[in-house]
Request: fold
Amino acid sequence: MTNRPVAAITGASSGIGSAIATRLAADGYDLALCARRQQRLTELADTLSQQHGAAVLIQSVDLRDEAQILKWLSAISTRFHRLDVLINNAGLGYKESLTSGTTEKWRETLDVNVIALCICTREAIKLMRELGEDKGHIVHISSMSGHRVPGSGMYSASKFAVRALTEGLRQELRADSSAIRISSISPGFVETEFAEKYSGSAQQAKQVYGQFPVLQPQDIANAIGYVLSQPDYVQVHDILLRPTQQSS
Reply:
């Protein structure tokens, strides 16, 4: 059991997730981190423990498998006996058209960006209510693609869903008179591994991130810090942030 607040972060092994974990460890949180790459999680946990004194639970989780998600949340309950924050950071996308894209990649996009996010949220709220006082904070890492369609219909559809789920959950929590808050962060171009996986090309990713100064993972972590630092009566619904020179 810990007296420090506990934050759970999905997709924490690199990029935005790793930056958020580092920021929250520095802010005094203990952490429960999941991703598919166990070695990267281990290295990150060691660093955060040494540099910030954070207690860190790590678990390799494929978010397409509900049983693995449930096992991770159960481990959080056992280890920390509390959960204050869930950051639904994990997400992916592919440059797959709606006229010729593969069903497999469409399904993976929706499974990770939408269904897994919903499962993690549902189970985190259960823990917050069982272990605490019906109080906590859920944060979705969404995208500017949830506010306009820049070209990839399925990826944008998944982020439009996150936008709807943010408001739908806000309404449900208010109807329940819950003190749990829900927020979303919607970035534009952020320099991570996303563009290479999305396009399937390291060269195309380099072109995307080299056309003008783009956001860095720490910029998103700073937005998270702002959201979580607000007093209980303030709920930041969505933050849209993009590079200054990004046109859309």
Remarks:
- The domain at 6-241 is CATH 3.40.50.720 (Rossmann fold).
- The chain is about 50% helix and 15% strand.
- The first helix runs from residue 15 to 26.
- The CA atoms of residues 17 and 231 lie 24 Å apart.
